[in-house]
Amino acid sequence: MSATSPEPQHRAKVSEREARQVAEAAREQDWRKPSFAKELFLGRFRLDLIHPHPMPPDQDAQRGEEFLAKLRDFCETKIDSARIEREAQIPDEVINGLKELGALGMKIGTEYGGLGLTQVYYNKALALVGSANPAIGALLSAHQSIGVPQPLKIFGTQEQKDAFLPRCARTDITAFLLTEPDVGSDPARMAMAAVPDGDDYVLDGVKLWTTNGVVADLLVVMARVPKSEGHKGGITAFVVEAASEGVTVENRNAFMGLRGLENGVTRFHRVRVPAANRIGPEGAGLKIALTTLNTGRLSLPAMCVGAGKWCLKIAREWSGAREQWGRPVAYHEAVGAKISFIAATTFALEAVLDLSSQMADEDRNDIRIEAALAKLYGSEMACLMADELVQIRGGRGFETAASLKARGERAVPAEQVLRDLRINRIFEGSTEIMHLLIAREAVDAHLKVAGDLIDPDKSLSDKARAGAKAGGFYARWLPKLVAGPGQLPRSYAEFHPAGHTDLSGHLRYVERNARKLARSTFYAMSRWQGKMETKQGFLGRVVDIGAELFAMSAACVRAELLRTTEDHGREAYQLADVFCEQSRIRVEELFGRLWTNTDDLDRKVVKGVLSGTYTWLESGIVDPSGEGPWIADATPGPTTHENVHRPIR
Questions:
Q1: What segment(s) does the record annotate as region Disordered (predicted)?
Q2: Closest Cα to residue 211, out of 245, 244, 255?
Q3: Who's near 475: CB < 8 A, 6+ residues apart?
Q4: Which site from 150, 546, 598, 640 is most exposed, i.e. has the minimal number of CB atoms within 10 Å?
Q5: How many structural domains are present in the chain?
Q6: Residue 632 burial by Cβ neighbours in a 10 Å radius (0-12, 13-18, 19+)
Q7: Model confidence at 3: pLDDT above 60
């Protein structure tokens, strides 16, 4: 098939408005619990929601530490990461060993045969195993964070929990199937069908990038139920046996990193699924998926923290051993700045992760924004840290571990870590989608009081009511953005204990800039009104500022926790201080770019690129790409491929 072949005609045509309506209907509408990050975007620095730092109960900590000790021994003695990279597959004996250890059931309750670990210790386990090999971390995360266990824990019936959770805890690997060849972050276009037929549903369609799908025993599948008599219809979640007739894994996908990842293309052809396997009501599939991800997203920053710790270890050891111009390269300022960045950022990422995870365990706060910020910030900063490590290592950073070993040097897989981490900026919501998702939640309070004012479909009477409602809200809210504790020299004095670096000034900075961020958001809404949602560059910067302020807050709170509970509080204060100073520079740059940027010029250039205005710029090259359509044909029907599903033996 040539590169100019026509695209398949079966794809659903969905307007931008319809797509937004589907996404809006899926998000959780209400805020029943407080949210530190939500308040931060509104200009309210609610330090009381995160300080004193919440702590796990002693029995949870003891159970978690006991498992981590067993898992560490397994990682050190049973996992050969070089072999997984070389063979592009996790050996069956490793997966079976993890099953015997109980790693498949870390987040499943003990009543179902699981370990019942807290979110905090589940994430510590993922950081540990992910440092041994990130493909194994991805397998365990996809199984428990978004696979069958999590949605069943929240939305499943007791019968479903009794039937499936014991299997998930010990023997069965699970996968989550949402994406399709032409459906990514826009689920309104989903083509996978689930047609009611008696007491069953008949599934037809193709799912892409099914992490764990190649080896899975159970699948969570999102499919569209057509509306009919007795059926509400809509995108719906099902538990499907991977061995069901008509389920075919047509391809095991290969990627630039995570070479051991069991990710494939799965076709469903007239697959019968009992109605008893439907999770929740018809039409609730996307809400189930998004709710699952509220805490499920914390698994990715967990592995980013593990990667940061490893980068710091290698940077310390290498830059101390490598000498240039008479001294270790660490003491050359150009290299030292990179080491400082890695150390400070690793400290902050762990602070963000542990704080968000402990809040998830306590369940006193709504952490949907915190978890999303942790995923966004962790995935971006981990890539930067890995890139800096490669630079510190120089040519050795670009060389593979196998090549280093072959010529007699330590087999340090720096380039592999950089490749492996890159997917985290795309997994479970790309950075760009996370910006939009977080921005939507951040402006939720404004849309609730003033949304009708900027909705072109609302009547004049609706707009009048909204105007009155908005007037009352802003009359109370705006004056509070003028002044606050951040302007008082002695605010947050407990963060300047004797003999320690002063962190109180950083918290005052966060408080002042939270108000500044809220004012900027309000001004933008007043300026652009209904066009605000198209200003993705502006919204992305707003979210990035919020992420930095959240990370600064978490770093300071963690430093104070370590000061009062462990031996290295003074060092923690130093790391928090350095991180906050580095973060301030990024915040100031982002604020400057809110209003001074090339967004308008960029849009003009994009129009020119797509219209062919600049094709002359592409001359003088050859394109080594193969032929074929940009998006594979996913027309429902019987498979023409061999089933490459690989049961674990």
A1: 1-30, 627-649
A2: 255
A3: none
A4: 640
A5: 2
A6: middle
A7: no
Check pLDDT > 60 for residue 23: yes
Indicate whether 580 and 450 sit together in one domain: yes
* Non-local CB neighbours of 369 within 8 Å, separated by 6+ positions: 35, 37, 38, 41, 438, 441, 442
- Can you give the residue range of the structural domain that contains 304? 290-433
Give the pLDDT confidence score for residue 467 in this predicted structure: 81
List Cα–Cα distances, 647 to 97, 139, 200, 402, in angstroms. Answer: 15, 14, 26, 29
- As given in the structure block, the two tokens for residue 526 are 């007043």
Residue tagged active-site, from 180, 399, 428, 511: 428
214: its two tokens: 């190649």
Q: Which CATH number characterizes residue 384's domain?
A: 1.20.140.10
Looking at residue 532, what is its pLDDT? 84
pLDDT at 14: 67
Residue type, 566: E
pLDDT mean over 277-283: 96
DSSP string, 507-527: HHHHHHHHHHHHHHHHHHHHH
Q: Does residue 470 carry a pLDDT above 90?
A: no
Token pair for 87: 């063979």
Q: ∠349-353-358 over CA atoms, to 5°?
A: 150
The DSSP secondary-structure symbol of 322 reads -
Taking Cα atoms as reference points, which of 439, 465, 466 lies closest to residue 539?
439
> Strands (DSSP E) along 116-217, which ranges?
174-177, 193-197, 200-211
Question: Residues 424, 530: one domain?
Answer: no
Whether residue 544 has pLDDT greater than 80: yes
Average pLDDT, the chain: 93
Residue 332 covered by a domain: yes
d(CA 366, CA 386): 31
- Boundary (domain end) residue, out of 558, 575, 601: 601
Q: How far apart are CA 6 and CA 633, in angstroms?
A: 10
Is 566 in the same domain as 502? yes
Beta bridge partners of 194: 203
Structure tokens given for 270: 């007239």
Q: What is the pTM of this model?
A: 0.94
Distance, first Cα to last Cα, the chain:
38
DSSP one-letter string for 200-255:
EEEEEEEEEEEETTTT-SEEEEEEEEPPBTTB--EEEEEEEETTSTTEEEEEE---
**Cα distance between residue 48 and residue 453, in whole Å:** 34
Q: What is the pLDDT of residue 2?
A: 36
DSSP string computed for 71-98: HHHHHHHH--HHHHHHHTS--HHHHHHH
Q: Give the amino acid at 455.
A: D
**What is the residue-wise DSSP string for 106-121?**
TTS-GGGTS----HHH
Predicted confidence at residue 24, as pLDDT, reads 67
Asked about 76 being catalytic, the answer comes back as no
Question: Which residue has better confidence, 432 or 455?
Answer: 432
Tokens of 490: 């002695």
**Cα separation of 136 and 14, whole Å?**
37
Nearest Cα to 647, choosing from 215, 244, 357?
A: 215
Taking Cα atoms as reference points, which of 546, 151, 127 lies closest to residue 353?
Answer: 127
Report in angstroms the alpha-carbon separations of 278 from 155, 203, 274, 485. Answer: 10, 12, 7, 51
Co-location of 461 and 358 in the same domain: no
The pLDDT, as a whole number, for residue 26 is: 64
Look at residue 234 and give its three-state secondary structure.
strand
Q: Beta-carbon neighbour count of residue 454 at 10 Å?
A: 19
Instruction: Give the least confident one: 21-35, 129-143, 196-210.
Output: 21-35
Cβ–Cβ under 8 Å, residues 28 and 291: yes
> Which residues 6+ apart lie within 8 Å of 73 measured at CB?
none
Which percentage of the chain shows pLDDT scores above 70? 95
* pLDDT confidence bin for 154, thresholds 50/70/90: very high
